[in-house]
Amino acid sequence: PRKTAPGACKRFAQPLLSADPYIENRRREVEERVTRAVNRKLELVDRRLEAQKDTAFAGYEREKLIRKKQQLALMCSNVTVRLGRTLGYLRLISPNDAEYDPDLIRRKKEVERAAMEYVMEYERKRGWVPKDVHEEDLGYDIESTRGEEKMHIEVKGLSKESDEVTLTHNELKASEFFRETYYLYVVLDPLGPSPRLVVQRSPFKVKREVVVKQYVVEVDATGG
């Protein structure tokens, strides 16, 4: 039998609240699915903790990873399956009645994806080795290395030319921590025939706070 790794999320042992076979099967399915997902995430976190052990900026990234590991451990202890009471009802609203534009949302995602691809290729062409980490919530999208050098790159894509982009609170804090190795890469019109890249280095000029956790940064569209 496969041994459980140290600190891994163990199978949940929750008493059944119903003898119904359906409830029992659903409980078991949820336990197994959550256990697999949490253990997989814990394994990734442990790998990153080990990799960051001797790096120059280990403090910042290790702190974030340790916090994430604590959250995963809490998830292990708090998950249960039970018959719930009715909390309310949902009403489906037609997209035509809702205050959002699905085409605009889809377009935004396409712009973001194209901007990431453009920057990854740009880094490769200039001899660096980029790594996509945008799903790891580190405050930047790409780690680009060349020998002992490392850049932390936040990528923004704009479908039309603008003099400002938004940074989340996490992104701004990361830029303040990494400072000289943190770069903002703004790709103008990444879906067009001739995308243009504007690069800015931390620290940034924060123009104004848009919402509680987002900031606006001035972008020099001339590339200067």
Overview of this structure, please?
This protein has 224 residues and is α+β, with helices and mostly antiparallel strands. It folds into 2 domains: 21-78; 102-218, Trna Endonuclease, Chain: A, domain 1. The chain is built from 4 helices and 8 strands. The strands form 2 sheets. A 5-stranded mixed beta sheet has the order 1-2-3-5-6, sandwiched between helices. It has a 3-stranded antiparallel beta sheet with strand order 4-8-7. Strand 2 (142-146) and strand 3 form a beta hairpin. The relative contact order is 0.10. This is Protein NO VEIN C-terminal domain-containing protein.
Annotate the secondary structure layout.
Elements: H1 21-51, H2 58-78, H3 102-125, E1 129-132, E2 142-146, E3 149-158, E4 164-168, H4 169-178, E5 182-188, E6 196-201, E7 206-211, E8 214-218
Parallel strand pairs: 3-5
Antiparallel strand pairs: 1-2, 2-3, 4-8, 5-6, 7-8
Helix amount? 25-40%
**What is the CATH class of the largest domain?**
Alpha Beta
* Domain unit count: 2
Query: Under CATH, the topology of the largest domain is which?
Result: Trna Endonuclease, Chain: A, domain 1
Secondary-structure content class: alpha+beta
How many strand units?
Answer: 8
Contiguous helical run count: 4
Major sheet description = 5 strands, mixed
Unreliable stretches (pLDDT < 50, length at least 5) are 1-6, 11-18
SSE string: HHHEEEEHEEEE
Arrangement of strands in the largest sheet = 1-2-3-5-6
| Average pLDDT number | 76
* Shape annotation: globular
Annotated CATH architecture of the largest domain: 3-Layer(aba) Sandwich
The percent range for strand residues is: 15-25%
Tell me the span between the first and last alpha carbons: 61 Å
Protein name: Protein NO VEIN C-terminal domain-containing protein
Organism: Candidatus Marsarchaeota G1 archaeon OSP_C
Domain Protein NO VEIN C-terminal: 111-190
InterPro entries: NOV_C
